[in-house]
Amino acid sequence: MKQYILMATAFFYSLPAFGQTFIHQVDSLQNLLKISRPDSSRVNACLALAKWYQKNPTNRSQAYLDSTLLYARQAEVLSRSLGSRSLLGQALLSKSKALIDPRARTDKQIDEARRALKEALTIYSATRDKLQWADATYLFADSFSSQDTSRLPYLQLALGMYKKIGARQLAAETLSEIALTYQLRGRIAESLRIYLRVLAIQVPFRDKSPVLTLYHLAALYKLLGNYPKALQYAYWMNRVSLRMRDTPYLSSSYDILSTLYEELGNHRAALQFRYETLRISEQENNLQAILTTRIDISRTLLALNRSQEALSQAKATLKLIEVSLPKFRLIASLIVGECYMAVRDYKSAEVYYKWTESNVQPINSPILTNINQNLGILNLKTNRLDKAALYLAKAYENEQHFKHPIHKRQILLALYQLDSTRGNTALALNHFRQYTVLNDSLVNEAKNKQITLLQIQFDTEKKVKDIKSLQQQNQLQKASINQERLVRNLTLIGILLLTFLLWLSYNRYRIKQRTNQLLESKQMEINQKNESLSHLIVEKDWLLKELHHRVKNNLQLIISLLQSQGKYLLDKSAISAIEQSEHRVRAMALIHQKLYRDENISQIDMRAYIQEVAEQLSDSFDLEHRIAIHYNLIPMELDVSQAIPLGLIINEAITNAFKYAFPHEQSGNIYASLAKAETGRYLLQVKDDGVGLPSGVDLKQSNSMGANIMRGLSQQLGSSLEVTSGQGLEVSVLFEVFNPRIIPTHAVY
């Protein structure tokens, strides 16, 4: 029965630990239930809550089962009122699952569940919902106990429908239930055949579904005595559990492996797997599994003749059981007694045996057989023959119900020893003969098991060698394949790289060719434009020279007109005004004359220009050399836009000196200078050593034509005009040389 306990334990542990998520879900569902109206949404909320309470892994109490039933019944009532057959079917299934739950199933609840399932089957037959119909049929079968053959027809119906709709995993689960029923009914061969079919369905899914099937197969092959097959499926279960990281099933796999090796007599291997089971149980903090595993470890240590170690383990386990798990105290006390027997402490052993005897409940329990056997052997060893005979007789009688050959052999040996001690030779010989026959059978069985174990070890070693050989071949093959792949890849990379380089070279050649063609085209275009620009520049220069020539001629014409006009004037002031205008026009004409004569048609040589303006004015006033003009001029070229205003200012300053600085035909000097100032500006000065300005006359405040012209021209230049009078008159203009490109080109005359 131990494998079924382990099976159930694995089922409980395999539920996913969704505690925190489930708590949030149930809170949300309960809130939804409060605010929803009595419609389908409320039914769905009730169904979800029922499912939650039924599958919650953190609490499997009766209260949770009651909550499941409560919400399922609410969903049923509401779906009936809404007339929704689909929701009613789901509610009936949910209620049925809760009613047949193994935690609290009663005959009354089972009857209610079957009525609900029959109604659900009627609904799903009408709606032709094959999956739900199959689920309802499966649940109807589940309402019977696992060993009740009445469930088989319903399981077969559900299986047929699952196959029809292609639900392979559900079909596998149904087959597993059929196999379990056969197994519990002792039909081992049929159960084994079905479990193998289940395994063939489950393996392709590559999940943990085959684990329980592998456990059943290992257990069945153990019952049949086929230990190689049992070990094969036990190890397979272990590998799948490791891969899926399913610790409950992993613990079960170690447990069945330890049991198999123990029966094969390999107690060292069994002990190793017992410790693995204990390690996982401690990781999971599963107290029941920890204590039962420690009991098994004590038994295995006894089998290895490590009696003192077994005794320490058993006593420590018993203390924990007395506090935490009293229902296991009986078996733990029995093991402690056996440990004391092994260390020959018969007095202590008797204390524990007596306690187990007084607390065992079933009359024909296998434990009672073990207790009577141990007490009989204890009394025999302590020479209490009457008590030994009494207990051994009880043990022999109990053993007839359970037919455990190892216990029977020990009882027969003890009876033989008892009869020999008493001198009852006939009974002693009879018991010895029975013991010998049974012992030979068990020895042969042990030898067969030992041979089987040796064969398993041989096969295992052979497989290990084969695996190593295959691994070496595989590694060599992989190395060869990798080398070939490397060579192939390098070749392909080389070809691709060469192709890329060729393409890149050709592409660069084409780009360079196109670039050269484009450059040649652009160069031709540039050359044409340069040639055209050269012609245009020449034409522009000729046009500008022609323009300056025409302007100069026009200005000469204006001068001639002014001279002609002056001949007809009698007013001296008018004649003076005409003459001053002539001088100004001559100053401008002189610039245009220089521009069309020189190669440079945009810049004026100021040193030559100032001298020519001064000499031209000297000639026009006919001074007969009584006024000398002195020059101190730096070489400098200015743009026309600056040269004309400066020329006019010079014209006004020299004209003023000729007319007013030297009255009564006095002799004198005029000084014209152009120099660079400290601040990057240039200073133009015209001064004389004449009489200067009359007292009270300020040229800056004067409204005369000449003063206005000089002030206006200095403003146009952006310069400062200074007029000082002392020992003669000094006119100073401080100006900057502008960039011709940003100088305004509007006319200044």
Automatic annotation (TrEMBL):
Its EC number is 2.7.13.3. It catalyses: ATP + protein L-histidine = ADP + protein N-phospho-L-histidine. The chain crosses the membrane at residues 486-506. Residues 641-739 form the Histidine kinase/HSP90-like ATPase domain. The lineage of its organism: Bacteria, Pseudomonadati, Bacteroidota, Cytophagia, Cytophagales. The keyword ATP-binding applies. The keyword Signal applies. It comes from Spirosoma pollinicola. Keywords: ATP-binding, Kinase, Membrane, Nucleotide-binding, Phosphoprotein, Signal, Transferase, Transmembrane, Transmembrane helix. It is an enzyme of class 2 (transferase). Residues 1-19 form the signal peptide. SUPFAM superfamilies: ATPase domain of HSP90 chaperone/DNA topoisomerase II/histidine kinase, TPR-like. This is histidine kinase. GO terms for molecular function: ATP binding; protein histidine kinase activity. InterPro entries: HATPase_C_sf, HATPase_dom, Sig_transdc_His_kin_sub2_dim/P, TPR-like_helical_dom_sf. It comes from the Bacteria.
